[in-house]
Amino acid sequence: MHSPTQLAQIFREKQLKLTPQRQLLFGLLHENKAHPSAESLFEVASKQMPGISLRTVYQTLGELAEMGELQLVDVGDGAKRFDPNMGEHHHFVCESCGSIHDVEISSTPKIRGEGAGYEVNDVGVVFHGKCTRCGESTKRSPGHQAKKQVAKTK
Amino acid sequence: MHSPTQLAQIFREKQLKLTPQRQLLFGLLHENKAHPSAESLFEVASKQMPGISLRTVYQTLGELAEMGELQLVDVGDGAKRFDPNMGEHHHFVCESCGSIHDVEISSTPKIRGEGAGYEVNDVGVVFHGKCTRCGESTKRSPGHQAKKQVAKTK
DNA sequence: AGCTAATTTGCAAGTATTGCTAACTAACAA
DNA sequence: TTGTTAGTTAGCAATACTTGCAAATTAGCT
To answer: What's the pLDDT tens digit per position in B11-21?
Structure first.
């Protein structure tokens, strides 16, 4: 996604207000490689702006996604993740610690078989497995993080 | 997944009971290429066995998935889908009518970049776009089905 | 027919997300 | 600086999907 400064510009042009809530979120999302969920972003945002509403976080994330500034990532664990990296890439999810990493694949897969003729607008590839750290610790502890990131929220 | 007859055998061996509910579901799932959600299966099952509980459908689907008889497919539309086709394949979701089709891709993508070293256990590829029928009707109606299959439930 | 562990059910509860609306405020104008 | 107002925020209710729980039922065996 664009930098907070650029986003400010874009918002102004669209007659959208530059509220402190939005500015905070712009900053938190910028270059964020953690693939946060609305909830986890809310937690971080709350520290810097106590009282900010989870509803606002959802709202803003939704707007940014609609504007093409964020990519929605669904790794199948319930909550949607938001990724500011709009470049073509896919995701690796560690089934041990829940961390999500950007990955590049040799080439975006092409559909074959079954009649073809589909008009493909988007391809999502999600790998599940163990990340480097969790893979190593297999014979020691069952993962370096006690809980999956996802569970953190509750 | 195995045929209803084979499943019966497998269940017996595991001391699991062959209830009419299970038998019905075995039959409904066998060779089912519709990628049904628990709800949609429940609707169909209810016609043949009024009174069957949605809870039972969830229960049974969960058991079969755990036994490796069904594949869980998440296309990011809220409900999980169940696919008896355990062969290696991926999915195409029509963003117009919501239908899901099995697709084969030239080769399962391999991870490159970012340190690599991941232990990959599963790769899920989901294509989003327009299916043949919806692609055709683009200039006529907004899709051949009024509602997305998903919405059907509510 | 009787026993019992497995199963089914209904309902409450949990999680993630959106709809609605009243209160609030950024941005612009006077 | 103050006023105006359209755009925003925040809180809560409501929805959608799924699971936990406990009581009632039943398949499969003796």
So the answer is: 999 999 999 99
Q: Taking CB atoms and an 8 Å limit, are B104 and A114 in contact across chains? A: yes
Rg (C-alpha) for chain A, rounded Å, is 18
Q: Which of the nucleotides in strand C have any atom less than 7 Å away from a protein CB atom? A: 5-11, 14-20, 25-28
A vs B, Cβ pairs < 8 A, gives 125
- pLDDT above 90 covers a percentage of chain A that reads 64
Which CATH number applies to B4-70: 1.10.10.10, 3.40.50.720, 1.10.3660.10, 1.10.357.10?
1.10.10.10
DSSP track, B2-69 = --HHHHHHHHHHTT----HHHHHHHHHHTT--S--BHHHHHHHHHHHSTT--HHHHHHHHHHHHHTTS
Per DSSP, the residues of A70-109 read SEEE--SSSS-EEE---SS-EEEEETTT--EEEE-BSS--
What pLDDT, on the 0 to 100 scale, is given for residue A95? 87
The CATH architecture to which B88-152 belongs is 2-Layer Sandwich (3.30)
